[in-house]
Amino acid sequence: MRIAVDAMGGDFAPREAVLGALWAVRDYGLEVLLVGDEATIRAELAGYGPVAGIEVCHAPEVIAMHEQPAVAVRKKRQSSIVLAVGLVKSGAAAGLVSAGHTGATMAAALLGLGRIGGVDRPAIASVLPDEHGGTVLLDAGANVDCKPYNLTQFALMGSIYAEKIRGVP
Q1: Which domains does the chain have, with CATH numbers?
Q2: Is the peptide bond prior to 129 cis by the omega test (within 30 degrees of 0)?
Q3: I want to staple 12 with a disulfide (CB 3.0 to 4.6 A). Which of 16, 39, 90, 98 is the partner?
Q4: HSE (CB half, 13 Å, CA atoms) of 91?
Q5: pLDDT tens figures, 1-32
Q6: How far is 20 from 27, CA to CA, in rounded Å?
Q7: Which residues of the chain have pLDDT under 50?
């Protein structure tokens, strides 16, 4: 499975994204597309020698934490998160990970990938690890003004995810 990683997102980017990519390739056999400033990412990778399973996709722009999500996504079309979403949309990656601006990640995904018909709001999923494989928590406070029907949709999406992805009957 190939995963796109917003290598420029997070407080210690791209170092932590590179370390995570190395771990994912080594321990889980994943392929990783590191998306961000190519020179900076390659400088981080240089200390590890050639690594099969990691590719770098250049993205000259970064969305900073202080920027308005929707405005930044529309304005910075060459940002690491927008290009990572594009890799998922094109099928070059099966999913994406970002430790960067949550609002921008959500906005880029909504604009780039869309939503399932009938779903008013997306829900961010977090896995709480435990000895049974983990519990999936949806939304986790990301939406501050939910209506009852939004919560019902989150529950339906969560149950479908649990069944199809996690194998919960």
Answers
A1: 2-114 (3.40.718.10), 119-169 (no CATH)
A2: no
A3: 16
A4: 0
A5: 999 999 999 999 999 999 999 999 999 999 99
A6: 10
A7: none
Classify residue 68 as exposed, middle or buried by CB count within 10 Å of its CB (0-12, 13-18, 19+): middle
Token duo for residue 135: 């519990």
Number of other residues whose CB lies within 10 A of the CB of residue 12: 10
Between the alpha carbon of residue 61 and those of residues 52, 95, 133, 136, 142, the distances in Å are: 26, 20, 37, 32, 25
Sign of the torsion formed by the C-alpha atoms of 38, 41, 46 and 49: negative
How would you label 118-156 residue by residue, b for 16+ Cβ within 10 Å and e otherwise? eeebbbeeeeeeeeeeeebebbeeebeebeeebeebbee
pTM for the full predicted model: 0.88
